Amino acid sequence: MTSFDEAETEETVTCLHMTFYHPCQEEKMMFRCLNFSKREQVRADEMAKFGRDPNACHYNLLDTRVSRVQFSVQFYRKLNSPEHCFEIKNLSKKTKLRVDQTDLGYLNKIDLPWKCIICFGDYQILAEIQEGESMDYFETHLHLADKPILQERCLPSLQPIAENGIPSSFFSSQEKSPIEIDENES
């Protein structure tokens, strides 16, 4: 055996990519305490907390309308499974947290889908999970969006589809009103 054969394989790390947007980010600079330049490691037994209190949260949003601790993200492994997941919990008593189409009240939590949009107030966060193998820690990689995430992301499940199965976006934008078609017409 050569030393190459004996070398341990490198363990991949689960990474939570989060892209932040707020319509006033240029003027209010509420993201100036977030590190957008590199990935950060978070121990598996710690919660990643987001909010305005720098003593309670590692990820600070400098905005008086944000709760002291707005929400947390917890890394875990499903029972009897090698799969790693994240759960998100709303820690704000004043503001609901929306994860895709689900509203979370205070202390409500759900599993974070592998790709979703998290909203509260005027904040929009695109969360994407990059799978890995490490059980000791995960990484966060923060990004800044210059355009609203809700407008950028294509949500095919939210686009109305006509009874004939053709998406409404297929028809030209010239038509101003709906066209009524007899169901016996072909």
Task: Walk me through the structure.
This protein has 186 residues and is mostly beta strands. The chain has a single domain (13-149), classed as Tumour Suppressor Smad4 (Sandwich), CATH 2.60.200.20. It has helices spanning 3-6, 25-28, 149-152; strands at residues 15-21, 40-43, 47-51, 59-60, 71-77, 84-90, 97-99, 102-104, 109-111, 115-120, 123-130, 137-144. The strands form 2 sheets. A 7-stranded mixed beta sheet has the order 2-12-1-11-10-7-8, with no helix packed on it. The chain has a 5-stranded mixed beta sheet with strand order 4-3-5-6-9, with no helix packed on it. The protein is globular.
Tell me the fraction of residues in β-strands, as a range.
Answer: 25-35%
- Nearest-angstrom radius of gyration? 21 Å
CATH arch. level architecture: Sandwich
**How many beta strands in the DSSP annotation?**
12
User: What's the CATH topology label?
Assistant: Tumour Suppressor Smad4
Q: Strand-and-helix sequence, N→C?
A: HEHEEEEEEEEEEEH
Poorly predicted sequence stretches spanning 5 or more consecutive residues:
154-162, 167-178
Task: Determine the fraction of residues in helical runs and give it as a percent range.
Answer: under 10%
Figure out the total of helices: 3
Shape label = globular
Mean pLDDT: 83
- How many structural domains are formed by the residues? 1
Structural class: mainly beta
End-to-end gap = 71 Å
Main sheet summary: 7 strands, mixed
